[in-house]
Amino acid sequence: MQVSIACTEQNLRSRSSEDRLCGPRPGPGGGNGGPVGGGHGNPPGGGGSVPKARAALVPRPPAPAGALRESTGRGTGMKYRNLGKSGLRVSCLGLGTWVTFGSQISDETAEDVLTVAYEHGVNLFDTAEVYAAGKAERTLGNILKSKGWRRSSYVVTTKIFWGGQAETERGLSRKHIIEGLQGSLERLQLGYVDIVFANRSDPNSPMEEIVRAMTYVIDQGLALYWGTSRWGAAEIMEAYSMARQFNLIPPVCEQAEHRLFQREKVQVQLPELYHKIGVGSVTLSPLACGLITSKYDGRVPDTCRAIKGYQWLKDKAQSEDGKKQQAKVMDLLPIAHQLGCTVAQLAIAWCLRGEGVSSVLLGVSSAEQLIEHLGAVQVLSQLTPQTVTEIDGLLGNKPHSKK
User: What spans are recorded as compositionally biased (Polar residues) (predicted)?
Assistant: First the structure.
């Protein structure tokens, strides 16, 4: 098993193969429930004795202003990017658990998928309190505990909004943000999550209350960063302004849908926020729950796994717009064949080109499907401006900046 993290070439040459995978060995107290040396599941940064001597640091040349370097993992080919303009490095492809974990696939298949992802350099695992009514978090937590991977080698994100049936168990009140995250951590069997997302905006909760609650859970060590999901650009900017006004912690990223047929937000609205306030994008549903492939030959049957139990998705796929989109998916086949890839790999690689996109979340039902989708990383370098222009011409839906 080999998993790469973002390192300099010099460090990679000087470290052993096991250290390249995992970093230094954990001391007593390390484990899945919390970071090494943190005690009681607290995040890294506190405690521990100061070493008597430190090796001299080798200065590195400064990066150009505004430039954040992308690195490639040795042995896996996975690419790593900064989460927005934070210092957190995430794999450009992450693994999502919506629809699949705790629902459409068995726990054994979920473990196979997560293992393959980790071994291929994926370090970002996304879930939510609402996914399969909490079962997705439980499944993910059980697998992480059984694998025994170093907590510092992967990133776990969860989303808070829909937690239960009671009026106080949903929304973004201070009460639910704190209690909802504590419930997620219990199901995940973790001391902290790396990122907690506000899983939609909440008109019933004042923005100051939301930002203060997110700052609180970070200060308490329950999360390291916070972000937004399905928020509008104006709402994200309001949260950022509120944080700056009251010396609180601003969001670092927005989680949004982005695919060939849903482009406006990620391609027009979010890049401006990325450049102005450093908010990056973690995008999801690049294949529209499996509908953007060529395997249906332009038609989506009633037996399609992606639409089982999701009537709204079935209606959308079988609408006039859905049928037109399926026809355009088939039009992409010649381009995919020319690049030596599948339509799914082409569609995912296309999403990775987005300005300010830190990671694209994949949802898969098998390890074999995941391996195919991970091949999109190799396709990315083949997407020349000419190829992208050709794709835009076929789709006919390129959004125009309002600048």
Answer: 1-14
